[in-house]
Amino acid sequence: MFAQGLAPRRVVVTGMGIVSPLGLGVDHVWKRLVSGESGIGPITHFDVKDLPAKIAGQVPDGKKDEGGLDLGEWIPVKDQKKMDRFIQLAWVAAEEAIQDSGWMPEDEPSRIATGVMIGSGIGGLETIQEASALVASGRTRRLSPFFIPSALVNLASGQVSIKYGFKGPNHSAVTACATGVHAIGDAARLIALGDADVMVAGGAEAAICELGIGGFCAARALSTGFNDNPTAASRPWDKERDGFVMGEGAGVLVLEELEHAKARGAKIYAEVVGYGISGDAHHITSPAEDGSGGFRAMESALRSAGLAPGDVQYVNAHGTSTPMGDDIELSAVERLFGEDGKKVAMSSTKSAVGHLLGAAGAVEAIFSIQAIRDNVAPPTLNLEDPSRESVIDRVPKEAQQRPIDVALSNSFGFGGTNASVIFRRAP
Amino acid sequence: MSETAEKVKKIVVEHLGVEEAKVTPEASFIDDLGADSLDTVELVMAFEEAFGVEIPDDAAEKIQTVKDAIDFIEKSQASA
Fold it and tell me: How far apart are CA A151 and CA A146, in angstroms?
């Protein structure tokens, strides 16, 4: 590319891994999602009495074969303490995705052709919280030598790269709640442009700590009215919605150049056909009222895919369940799709898992790919009474069986950053 | 084995995730027990915390083996 003018190459998805409030493992999580289960519950691992939001989507404890997380099954104890929880979750999701893809090269050229781009919205927030407590108590000299490498966002990529010996691009996205989509889109471009043949890409987040919940509460972003009824709290587009519910987890995809995947006989889940990104240039936390930023991201993704809105059958919305954001996104999608809006299904899977911040885009990319594989639009839970009507079917409460060949997924983040990615049925 | 030696051994096993049998007095943290430079920094901090001693950086650099650690700690405790 650039001076040589090389044509971009096609990129497909050959592995997927997920750690979420609905558990571990793509099949397990997808089954629960489609059947309308919720992963939201009371916060269990710290005292929430001083916080207005007392619920979250936490990764369930449990054994691997029950779809739960027992870190001891995945990461040696001595390594666990060198990584914040967000890196641990990335590690687990990456292991699932890489195993699933069957791509574990031993030879040097293949390892050099394989890179990692796992991002996080915030990084090691709980680690920072604990370290700050040491400083505040006058014990600065007790800071662990692992504090910095545990907290740094790009160490999710770094740890995965080291573990598997992947020596290609070692990169990381940090764009708040758009991180997951940016990581996947940018990693796909690295493959398309020849920087790598395979990229392990996604996002991870573990910000359910006093600093994370308290900080988003201060920004008036979290739901506080459903502490006694957690599974009803995340209700995108519903009249009663009052903010997002924080979730934790990680989503990781193995992206691969099409011919590379075919040559080794890999199973191909979907093709990454479109990617579009934009900025609002409006406000640090609120989206532009006219939804123009999200609109342009979607429009640009469609343009890069060479598709028209009518070619898209499913949209996985950003849809966080905040009073303002949901309808702004809905209006942007209505405007983009026009008459074709009647044919598209759009749901928010955050209704079931909460908002995984920097992991959201990656986990939702997996849900979008699953929607194509099974021809199923997952439901928007708790959408009892929409705050406004729309021609767009928002898949209230129950999953819908419908033909889906092309799915678009949106992620928008603080700072006015927007990203859309489009997947198409495997070629 | 002295009480200090027992305690040092326990800390090493805990922090480096190695088998107890490998933690002999002669064992080198880096060459025999798989530690890297950050692990040794953390180990020294754990010794300081557990024994209430201060191990200055120049002394810490000389602590290469399990025996080095035990000797340093016993010496500081004797002079305290």
Answer: 8
What is the ipTM metric for this complex?
A: 0.87
Q: Is A177 a catalytic residue?
A: yes
d(CA B15, nearest CA chain A) in Å: 6
Beta-carbon contacts of residue A21 (< 8 Å; ≥ 6 apart):
A39, A40, A56, A57, A58, A59, A60, A247, A248, A249, A352, A353, A354
Please give the Cα distance from A325 to A350 (Å, whole number): 13
The string of pLDDT tens digits covering residues B36-73 is 999 999 999 999 999 999 999 999 999 999 999 999 99
User: Which pair of structure tokens corresponds to residue A253?
Assistant: 């995809």
Nearest to A145 among B16, B17, B38 (CB): B38
Going through A120-221 in order, the beta strands assigned E by DSSP cover 170-171, 198-205
- Indicate whether B79 pLDDT > 90: no
User: Per residue in A277-288, pLDDT tens?
Assistant: 999 999 999 999
Judged on CB neighbours under 10 Å (0-12, 13-18, 19+), B54 is exposed
Per DSSP, the three-state class of A254 is strand
Listed in order, strand segments (DSSP E) in A132-197 are: 170-171
How many C-beta atoms lie closer than 10 Å to residue A333's C-beta? 25
Measured CA to CA, the distance from residue A116 to residue A126 in angstroms comes to 24
Q: Distance (Å, rounded) from C-alpha A264 to C-alpha A404?
A: 27
Q: Is residue A2 pLDDT above 70, yes or no?
A: no
Among residues A23, A26, A148, the alpha carbon closest in space to that of A87 is found at: A148
Amino acid occupying residue A122: I
Rg of chain B in Å (alpha carbons): 11
B11 vs A contacts (CB less than 8 Å): none
Q: Does A77 touch chain B (CB under 8 A)?
A: yes
DSSP secondary structure letter of residue A63: -
d(CA A289, CA A241) in angstroms, rounded, equals 18
CA atoms within 13 A on the CB side of A179: 31
Q: Using a cut of 0.90, tell me whether the model's pTM lies above it.
A: yes
Tell me whether residue A318 is one of the annotated catalytic residues. Answer: yes
d(CA A130, CA B30): 28
Give the minimum alpha-carbon distance from A134 to chain B in angstroms, rounded to a whole number. Answer: 14
